[in-house]
Amino acid sequence: MALPASPAPARPPLRQRVGFRFALVYGLLTVTNGLFLPWQAASAWFAQTVVHQPLPPRLPQNGSGDTLENYVLAALFLLTALLVTLVWSLLERRGHLTERLFWSAHTALRFYAGFFLLFYGWSKVLLSQMPAPDLTDLLTPLGEMSPMGLLWRSVGAFPLYEVAGGLAEAVAGALLLFRRTSLPGALLGAGVMAYVFLLNLSYDVPVKLFSAHLLLFCLLLLIPFLPRLWALLLNRPAAPVRFPVPHARPLWRWLGAGGAALLALAALAYPPFAVSQMQRQYAAWPAASDLAGIYTVLNDSRPAAARLEDDTRWQKVALSDRVYSQSGQTYSGVRVRRVSGDDLRGTYEADPTAAELTVTLRGSSTTFRSTRTPAGHLLLRGEEGGTPFTLELAPDPDAQRLTTRGFHWVNETPFNR
After folding, report:
1. Taking CA 315 as the corner, what is the angle to CA 309 and CA 318, rounded to the nearest 5 degrees?
2. What is the DSSP code (8-state) at residue 180?
3. CA dihedral defined by 292, 293, 298, 304, rounded to 10 degrees?
4. Which of 7, 98, 209, 225 stands the most exposed, by the fewest C-beta atoms within 10 Å?
5. Where are the transmembrane segments (predicted)?
6. Is the pTM of this model over 0.85?
7. 329-338 and 283-286 as β-strands: parallel, antiparallel, unpaired?
8. What is the number of other CB atoms lying within 10 angstroms of the CB of residue 182?
9. Mean pLDDT in residue range 380-403
10. What is d(CA 238, CA 17) in angstroms, rounded to the nearest whole number?
């Protein structure tokens, strides 16, 4: 006797189907930047008509994802998603396209969120996103730092904290690449991205939109598991999630599994490779010069100006302890704070055999003869406008306390300054 056919799964409620359609369309527009279509004219019109503010000219890539155009595009994508959802819902009365697309969309979103979590995770694990502060960075007074600069320097100064955060992102990204581990991946990813989004809001880091979208995507990935999570919280039994049945034909089944495995392998391997390549492009290594350090100027033989705001004598000097390589050129940074309060940045070259130090500030170079005094001070003799002058610099150990204090298990008293 033939067994009765198992009943077909109940169709999701209308609100769930409509919500999925909206999320699918908005997510597709967001991850493809508007399906790769030109939105410039629509963005300019929306900004002028609705926001009452013209779009500023596009700047070269500077790392900001929170431009006015980015927010305008997000608003346009929301409106477009609402319109497409309305039309889709009116057209699909009896079909099952929504149900058939659910797990495919879930898989695509898993790989998208997983890839970027892996990329940002590896950039922190390899100490690339927030590098340790340079000596020229340490010369910046706390009150003069931007909120983002404070975050970057404080995280970069302590590699353990940065690596731990990167590992959390990378582990979440790796778990999202596989369907059976997507639940812990989405939970961990949502927690990590909630913290990252909070940091971006608190320190005005201009990737608020992108981090908010990654947080939203991790939360959307939890939707098929919500009944099980709710049952867990209420200490009730939970039925397993029903994943889609593999294709009946072995060839298509093997092709699907092989393609997913290759895609997961690429997503796992590419982020550390890309971050390593970026590090090579902007490489940095310890400077060979023994002049590197932060100095207080004890004496500047040049005459003082009548007003402090016109006084160009040096007050503080930071000679970077790193050599940077960019576009085939190598350089070390220098930073000078004048008595007037002016802050100058430039480069320097040290020639130990000739005992010379060449400092370039604002396109103007000065070559000094350098000597050490018995007290360990640095004497620099140079010329300005044909007139010789002398600088006496004393190392300032307190200026590097942030990076030289180190870690202590035992602290008899708090060291907080």
Report:
1. 125
2. G
3. 70
4. 7
5. 20-39, 71-91, 103-122, 185-203, 209-230, 251-270
6. yes
7. unpaired
8. 24
9. 91
10. 23
Helix axes 208-221, 14-31, angle to 10 degrees: 140
Domains of the chain, by residue range, sit at 14-281, 286-402
What phi and psi values does residue 24 have, to the nearest 5 degrees?
A: -65, -45
Q: Which two tokens stand for residue 181?
A: 């581990």
Find the helix packing angle between 182-202 and 159-176, rounded to 10°.
Answer: 140
Which residue, 271, 37, 300, is CA-closest to 177? 271
The tens digit of pLDDT for each residue in 277-318 reads 887 777 777 776 789 999 999 999 999 999 999 999 999 999
d(CA 135, CA 294) in angstroms, rounded, equals: 7
The number of beta carbons lying within 10 Å of the beta carbon of residue 335 is: 23
Q: Which of 381, 395, 396 is nearest to 302 (CA)?
A: 381
Average predicted confidence (pLDDT) for the chain: 90
Token reading at 68: 């006015």
> Any idea how long the chain is?
417
Q: What are phi and psi of 288, to 5 degrees?
A: -80, -15
